[in-house]
Amino acid sequence: MSDTQQPHPLRDTLRSHTFASLEPGPRLIVLGGVHGDEVCGTAGIERTLAELDSGALTLLRGRLTLVPVANPLARRLMRREGERNLNRLFQPTPAGEQPADYEARITDLLCPLLDAHDVLLDLHSFQSAGDAFAMIGPRDNRGTLEPFARAFEEGQLALHLGTSRVVEGWLDIYAAGLAQRAGGKPADDRAIAFGWGTNEYMRSRGGYGVTLECGQHQDPAAPEVAHRAILAALRLLGMIAVEPQTQPQEPPALLRLVSVTDRDGEGDRFVREWATFDPVSRGEPIGLRADGRVLAAERDGFIVFPNSTALPGTEWFYFAVASERDLRRPAA
Known about the structure:
Number of strands: 14
Structural class: alpha/beta
Oligomer: single chain
Shape: globular
Number of domains: 2
CATH architecture of the largest domain: 3-Layer(aba) Sandwich
Strand order of the largest sheet: 1-3-2-4-7-5-6-8-14-13-10
CATH class of the largest domain: Alpha Beta
Radius of gyration: 20 Å
Distance between the termini: 61 Å
Number of helices: 8
């Protein structure tokens, strides 16, 4: 295929759409296609764009920015990554240095967009079967890993996105996984920074963000989940008209990630095809190592993000337990 038919990666265009009301208010940015094979967020954003352009949807206050495809190269290739995972090492290139890869160039364009907003909704999907869920960050803290002071607002956003589950604890478990791979040695700052995605960056800039996993990649319902979530976020923030609530919504179950298990080699396999949020009981076999060792659940909990095709040395599955946190109330 000629160069005129197939765009060169460095000639890609990052497309964003900003709508600004004359009335001041919250500043929300919505991302789709951070991973190229996750198309539901793009579909939900494009539908919202059409509604705004036609006048079917009116922005009452604040600013809304929609980015349908955050990683154009990965989308053209229809795979998770272009040259690497855009949702890792999500930090601008240091002054005086050149971007290391395609995703670093995209990050350098996206970071100023996030800087100009208060709230982020990042729309994703996942490889295994399972229901849609939201992911949130840490509780309010002054620690060194991810200090944060807007946990209640972030929790409120997660509560209103319409999922049956919310999951917390990503960066803690990422750091623990790094230490595990290093034989218990704490990871250095750069290694932990590689675990930074869009939400971690948003929190570091004084905002807050929620990742919505809209379902399995090919789930025909996932684009509708994405679209409903965009409207729900806009309503919560008072940016569009609020529809009458016909019946009270059940609050979602809250789970906390507590561990991650890597796939050591090609011979490692699951004992069955797991779906995200499949419950397991203490002692129940989950997988088999190549040497025949059985990996069993250390306690009652749930499988999250099982990936039977994970490369050796990468995350095979996460494990979550029920959380005692109540997102409906501010921390005492």
